[in-house]
What we know:
- By secondary structure, this protein is α/β, with parallel strands linked by helices.
- Helix content is 31%, strand content 19%.
- The chain has one domain (2-277): Metallo-dependent phosphatases (Purple Acid Phosphatase, chain A, domain 2).
- It starts with a strand and ends in an 8-residue tail after the last helix.
- It binds manganese (II) ion.
- Residues 9, 37, 62-64, 120, 162 line the site of manganese (II) ion.
Amino acid sequence: MDKIAIISDIHGNLEALKAVLADMDKRGVDKVYCLGDILAKGSNQQECFDLIKDKCEVIIMGNCDEFFTSDLDLSKINEENIRRINWNKGKINDETREYIKHLPFSYEFYLSGRLVRLIHAHPERNDKFVGNIDFITNYYPLFLPSEKTVSDKVADVVVCGHIHTPYSQKIYNRFIINPGSVGDSIDVFRNDSKDGNVLFTTCANYAILTGNIDSLNVLDPFSFEIVSVSYDIDKELSTNGDNIEFEAYKTELKDGQYRDMEKIYKSFEARNINKDEI
Ligand SMILES: [Mn+2]
C-alpha cells in the first residue's frame, strides 16, 4: 500500500516543517503532497519553499501564496498593511515568486477506489472558510467540483487545509480530511474551563492517507491519520527577529490563539454560534 503525507499551511515556519518531514521519514511515507500556504506570517518563507519544492510531488496554491505573489494595487491599502505586504513579498526571491504564481488550484487522484481531491480551502475559492465550526449542511459543497477543479466529478475524499485546526468528518459516504497546519496551529474554540493542554494545540500537524494509488477498486483498504509532532517553537521564534508582526506570530505559535479573534467571532455570528456559550 502507498502512504501519502499531506501537509498544509506551513507559513514560513522552518522548524515545524523540518519536524514533520523527519517524522514522516520514520513512518515510511512514500510521497508528500502540499495543500499550500507556504508563504506569510513567519520569517523563513524562502527556506520552507526550497524544502517543500524538494520533497513534495504535488503543491497546490494557498490563498496567501496567491496574495503575496500577485501584483497588488496598493493605492487603496493603508500604510500598515503596505508595510506588511512588502515585508512578506521580500521574503522570497523572484524565481520562487514565479514558481508559486503558477501553482495549480487543485489536484486529484484515485486511492483505493476513492476520488481524492486536494484543495486549499474550498472548491471555488482558496480563501473560503469551511471547517470544524460549521453545521453539517455546510460541508457537502466541499465535495462538489467547480470550474477550477481538475474534473467535474463529486469527490469521495476532500483534503483541505486553511483553517489551521485538524479535523475529519464523514458525511454522505464521503470523507473530509483536514490535516491542520504545519506551522501555525490554532484552535478557535477556546474556554479556560474546558481547554485541554495547549501543547496539544501548538504542535505541528499533518495527515497520512494510506491505500493503493490509481486503484479503482473500492474494496481496497483505505485509512488516514492525523499526526501531531512537537517542534522547537522558541528556536523558530529566535529566527524571527525581523518579523514585522512578531507579537501576533508569537501568540499564535506559543498559545495556539489566532491573532484576530474579532474576525472569527463575526464568522460565529454568521453561523449562528453564540460565542458566550462556547
Ligand atoms: Mn490559507
